[in-house]
């Protein structure tokens, strides 16, 4: 009988919670790096295939792929301790670049008012505000500039994510309609996948921040009691 009771008293092994791939920040980061590398490599290979000169290829790399190079400069360091140490600086770097990119989108829409430029501007503006509100949370910049009163403060994290996904898919549809080559269609699809992975990354970080804030507030409530 004693042996039976001892067996019953043994604690059952804890169940390991499995995280879906789209909720895994490390996997999403890796996915973003892969998409960025593919975008840069394919765009340059298409340029070489069209017999564009070396100088034109370099211009194409820095003009049309600059935002993707910035993406690599942001995501690759996050795989190492140094990047994690300077995480806030990397976030600020990404936000500044996207701010410049958004201003460029405004200038583009002034020059040519088209549906594609309008949707692109909407995506860039939402991305920029989403980044500021999510990636700068809790930093000195957040406190000094009182970003808690910024736009999207009352918007649901998942709703912002789905809004970006819908807009990105609309942009993909427009690009696929306008493109006349298979290469252009492939590149548009990969760019869309990268943009969605970037949105998912921001979503996961904001979700982490909100959960941490909720946990801290609960602990403070217990201490008060």
Polypeptide structure, described:
- The protein is mainly alpha-helical.
- Helix content is 78%, strand content 0%.
- It contains 10 helices and no strands.
- The longest helix has 43 residues.
- It is globular, with a radius of gyration of 22 Å.
Jot down its keywords:
single chain; 225 residues; mainly alpha; 78% helix
Helical proportion?
over 70%
Number of helices: 10
The total of beta strands comes to 0
Task: Give, in order, the helices and strands.
Answer: HHHHHHHHHH
Q: How confident is the prediction overall: mean pLDDT? A: 83
Give the termini distance in whole angstroms: 45 Å
Sketch the major β-sheet. none
- In the predicted model, the low-confidence regions spanning at least 5 consecutive residues are 1-9
Please identify the structural class as seen in this structure.
mainly alpha
Overall body shape: globular
Topology (elements, then pairings):
Layout lengths: L1 H8 L15 H25 L4 H11 L1 H10 L5 H5 L1 H25 L3 H21 L4 H5 L12 H22 L3 H43 L1
